[in-house]
Amino acid sequence: MPHTPPTLDADAVRSWSSRALTALGRARSEIDAINVYPVADGDTGTNLYMTVESAAQAVEAVFAAHEAVADGSVPSLNDAVRAMAHGALIGARGNSGTILAQLFRGMAEVLTDAGLAAALRRAAESAYGAVAHPVEGTVLTVAAAAADAAEGASGDAAAVARAAYDGACVALDATPGQLAVLRRAGVVDAGGRGLLTVLAALVEVLSGDAPAEPAASHRVALDCAADGDTEQVEEGPAFEVIYLLEADDEAVARLRARLDGLGDSLVVVGGEGLWNVHVHVDDAGAAVEAGVEAGRPYRIRITHFGDRPAAPPEQVQRAVVSVVPGEGLAGLCAEAGATTVMARPGEPPASGELVDAIRRAHAREVVLLPNDADLRHTAAAAAEQARTEGVRVALIPTRSAVQGLAALAVHEPDRCFDEDVVAMTAAAGATRYAELAVAERQSWTMAGVCQAGDVLGLIDGDVAVIGSDLAATAETVLDRMLAAGGELVTLVVGADMPDQVAEHLVAYVRDGHLAVDTVVYPGGCHAAPLLIGVE
Q1: Tens-digit pLDDT profile for residues 383-399
Q2: Cβ atoms within 10 Å of 148's Cβ, excluding its own
Q3: What phi and psi values does residue 155 have, to the nearest 5 degrees?
Q4: Average pLDDT of the residues of the chain
Q5: pLDDT per residue as tens digits for the range 72-83
Q6: Residue 27 CA, distance from chain mean position
Q7: What residues does 465 pair with on adjacent strands?
């Protein structure tokens, strides 16, 4: 049967973000390999993947919110495309990822009212406006060419998308002639290559047919780069600084001027009070300080370009990658030899971050500990991606940091992989877990109605105790957990928990359960007030 092109609606945006993510996952290594501008740090493909992953997660969240309401409502096109733009904004990585986020934002501003061609034009204009000093021969040029071709197309959205893709292909092929660093390296622009992948996904969604592979010159360029036939790019600033910023338009205008004087590759995207700031500087502290003066910067990431080795370290046989909810646990797990990924409240790591941690572990075999039931699918996606790169990954579905600690305690890298995984899985499974939290609002729970400010004792993920005092609530939780027996109690204490509470709980366990040992670890900032494990 002939294909009936779908309407450009919320479902199409959902499919587009999902297919773009899958396609970037396949093309990531190729795009990383041809990355020579603005810095030859080999991460453009990875940054684009992580940016689109955040966008796709935001779109899925909008659909999930509507599905949770039993009125049969579905997201509108405006809901979906704005969610995609917002997700890309808060998850943007690197120079190209930040520009892609602004392209999505520009599209979101007019897509519903004006159509795809006008949205692509607004996207290109917005991206040029976000870059302090636009350079031709980059992703900006490719975006502008896509918009030009789309405006000259006739037909439905599928025809417009196909024209945009074809125009982007021609522009991408021409980038080495526009930018000397690309010509010397024998490659096309990596950011433009990534945008082409995103546009190809849109064509496939709207037409049902995937566009042909990029021109042979792209593959020849990649081979040339892989063979080492490149010249060293002139040295630039030492640090890449990225942060989200809550600030008004006037403050951001002043921030742009100040950062422009501090470094280069300045891209500031966003609006309506939320911005993503990207800049390359020698003085990272000054760049962050400028953000503090402009508003409230957070999710600050500072990368020293010199920390990215030209040659990877020698691969080890086995490693453990563990997600941790606080700096104290991060240090503890690192001392035990694990590579850690930080999970802050409200900011769960994306699968791209887990894949990056697996790569940093640089091992042939990796045991992955998500330490959160909600991260199970994210961790599974990361494990699958790492397996395609030749890493043997075992995912142990730990649901709490204390289960991860139990697994890490029995880890022995010298025994065979399967035996090690079985022992770690058994240790995690034999550990019941609990957590103390403070209710933010009135709500219904398994233990009854709680009020804002109440102390909640969660056992194995469900609210079991509602109290008004941290120590008393912890005692009740411990009594319930130890009623079924136990040999070891692990207490992970958050930075906001008073020291005397932890000391009191140790004494409480010792006095009431003579055969039970207790260990206490600092959770640090961002950790829950108290995590409890009973083995």
Answers
A1: 888 887 788 999 999 99
A2: 18
A3: 115, -165
A4: 86
A5: 678 899 999 999
A6: 18
A7: 457
What percent of the chain is modeled with pLDDT above 90?
A: 40
How many of the other CB atoms lie within 10 Å of CB of 290? 24
CA dihedral 26, 27, 28, 30 (to 10 degrees): 130
Measured distance CA(53)–CA(49) in Å, rounded? 6
Q: Give the pLDDT of residue 153.
A: 87
The answer to whether 248 and 270 are in contact (CB under 8 A) is no
Amino acid letter for position 248: D
Is residue 346 left, alpha or beta, with left meaning phi > 0 and alpha meaning psi from -120 to 50?
left
SS3 content of the chain, % helix, strand, coil (to 5): 55, 20, 30
Residue-wise over 5-22: b if at least 16 C-beta within 10 A, else e?
A: beebebbbbbbbbbbbbe
Q: Taking a C-beta distance cutoff of 8 angstroms, is the pair 208, 3 a contact?
A: yes
**306 Cβ partners below 8 Å, 6+ apart?**
238
Please give the pLDDT value at position 514: 80
* 44 neighbors 31 (Cβ within 8 angstroms): yes
User: What span, in angstroms and rounded, lies between the C-alpha atoms of 96 and 141?
Assistant: 13
Residue closest to 352 by CA, chosen among 35, 32, 86, 25? 25
Q: Are 147 and 199 in contact (CB under 8 A)?
A: no
Rounded CA separation 415/121 (Å)? 58
371 contacts 400 by C-beta, under 8 angstroms = yes
Q: Is 395 exposed, middle or buried (0-12, 13-18, 19+ CB in 10 A)?
A: buried
- 228-262 per-position pLDDT tens digit: 444 444 567 888 899 989 999 999 999 999 999 99
pLDDT band at 219 (very low <50, low <70, confident <90, very high): very low
3-state class (DSSP) for residue 444: strand
As to burial, measured by CB atoms within 10 angstroms (0-12 exposed, 13-18 middle, 19+ buried), residue 258 is middle
Q: Which DSSP string corresponds to 331-372?
A: HHHHHTT-EEEE-BTTBPPPHHHHHHHHHHHTEEEEEEE--S
pLDDT band at 313 (very low <50, low <70, confident <90, very high): low
Kindly tell me if the per-residue pLDDT of 286 is higher than 60: yes
Q: Please state, in angstroms and rounded to a whole number, the distance separating the CA atoms of residues 85 and 58.
A: 9
